[in-house]
């Protein structure tokens, strides 16, 4: 890169809420969501059984990927991060039958974070994450909005501190601007080494609604795995 973009400000962009929440959705936020809260300074203590490793998904959208990962990997504790309230409600609706918001069992290896994920990454203990997922993030395609993208030169040191040596960072996007941006940002750093780049979703990567939409509309996703250098 010829000139580094300005640091990412510690603030949220985009919407927190879409359409008005229904009574059931509001009850999920008021009653169920607190049951999945945790202390970022000691996240492993929030799980009933201490997981063997800690994973984080940044921007879980409707929750499809997060819930499949939780079901398929009971030994890993997953923190699913999302600020959009309708998306949070979408995930919680899948977990809790109506009328059982306060009592229904919840996945023991799932916790939710509903603030900016960058704040969480700065608060986590050093080297605490074994895997980070960034699945089809908002591309912010205009050049003047580059600072709003999660993949950004200023986030690399933050991720390098939070992800243990040998840990994985998985990125998927169908947006050509974001694909080029990922390549540009990651080629200019030395904290992460590229393990793979695929044009078809690899095994062990659950699908999302955003991927399905991209494929229906003829866009080509890319799937990266980056490894934290030791």
Count of helix runs: 7
Overall geometry comes to globular
Spatial arrangement of strands, main beta sheet: 3-2-1-4-5-7-6
The proportion of residues in beta strands is 15-25%
CATH top level class name: Alpha Beta
CATH homologous superfamily title? Vaccinia Virus protein VP39
Number of strands: 7
End-to-end separation: 24 Å
Main beta-sheet annotation: 7 strands, mixed
Percent of residues in helical segments? Answer: 25-40%
Architecture, CATH level 2? 3-Layer(aba) Sandwich
Q: Provide the succession of SSEs.
A: HEHEHEHEHEHEHE
Our Rg estimate from Cα atoms comes to 17 Å
For the residues shown, what is the average pLDDT? 92
Pfam family, one: Methyltransf_4
Function: Catalyzes the formation of N(7)-methylguanine at position 46 (m7G46) in tRNA.
Pathway: tRNA modification; N(7)-methylguanine-tRNA biosynthesis
Protein name: tRNA (guanine-N(7)-)-methyltransferase
